[in-house]
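Subject: Protein entry, chain in single-letter code together with its fold tokens

Area: Proteins and the way their chains fold up in space.

Attached in line: The record itself begins immediately under this heading.
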Amino acid sequence: MAEKLSLLEQEGEIAADYLEGLLDIADFDGDIDMDVENDRATVSIVGADLSQLVGKKGEVLDALQELTRLAVTRETGERSRLMLDISGHRAGVKAKLIEVAKEAAAKATETGEEVELKPMNAFERKVVHDAVGEAGASSVSKGEEPKRRIVVLPA
């Protein structure tokens, strides 16, 4: 486990260096925090107005995360699953999704009927699947990207 942790810490360091370079080029002020949670390196950028780096529905954030993952992969030779958050955007989305998942699990259990949720990206679906499971229900993903969605099943 210690070797895996050091690789994740290394991913965080590489990502932080890459993102600091991007912030300098774009002339944005931001502080970078690194952590490891759920066997995944996480990097957060916090600062003044970074909304341009989040974009509409997190689209810019998703692109920056993918670029950062590619930079880490180039350095380590290993595929990265690094998570990037900017100004707490993903944390806020995650909290809302957990509430949606709990409500859907309760409704499916109460009514005995499936509850179909709106299409979500992979990050959102993972959060919902985990929260539905913690609420004692089960869920499956259906459909194809970009309209892939979760169906919460009655217990």
Residues 55 and 61 are 7 Å apart (CA to CA). Residues 2-26 form the longest helix (25 residues). Strands lie at 31-36, 41-46, 83-86, 115-116, 138-142, 149-153. Residues 2-87 form a domain with the GMP Synthetase; Chain A, domain 3 fold (CATH 3.30.300.20).
